[in-house]
Specification:
Length: about 140
């Protein structure tokens, strides 16, 4: 039988509390990086079941030297514009500074929406949830 001194238990939980703040920051970064990775990966694919490119778009792509059927991917500028940054102690932002990203994510009068950020959040969630659970469990595992 293990006997735990109350003072040791209190000290353990004080350390766990400090480590929890660091963990929260790390998990926020993990989530943001996972979203960016998934969004960049989706560019040029049909991973998120977008509408097929119009015949006129395919013809324009070929005429300009691009592959015929890689939606949202031409020069790579859109893909490369996807990034994240911490915006505060407990917040981060993921997105793009490209107007094209807004047009593609939401659609326009002439193009159907091809969202890549919002579905990347949903796709990243199971990974972040699994890693978070393991990290939190390790955080509170007694070390006496």
């Amino acid at each position: 039988m293990t006997v735990i001194d109350l003072a040791d238990a209190i000290a353990h939980f004080e350390v766990a509390h400090r480590r929890a703040r660091d963990l929260e920051h790390a998990l926020l970064g993990l989530f943001a990086r996972e979203i960016v990775s998934r969004a960049k990966h989706a560019i040029g694919t049909y991973e998120y079941a977008w509408a097929p490119l119009a015949a006129s778009t395919v013809a324009d792509r070929v005429a300009k030297g691009y592959s015929p059927d890689e939606p949202l991917l031409r020069s790579g500028e859109l893909r490369d514009s996807i990034a994240w940054e911490y915006t505060g102690e407990r917040s981060a932002i993921v997105g793009s500074n490209s107007d094209i990203a807004v047009w593609q994510e939401l659609g326009t009068q002439h193009i159907p929406p091809r969202p890549f950020l919002e579905p990347s959040v949903a796709a990243a969630w199971p990974t972040v949830e699994r890693v978070s659970a393991a990290m939190v469990a390790a955080l509170f595992r007694p070390r006496f």
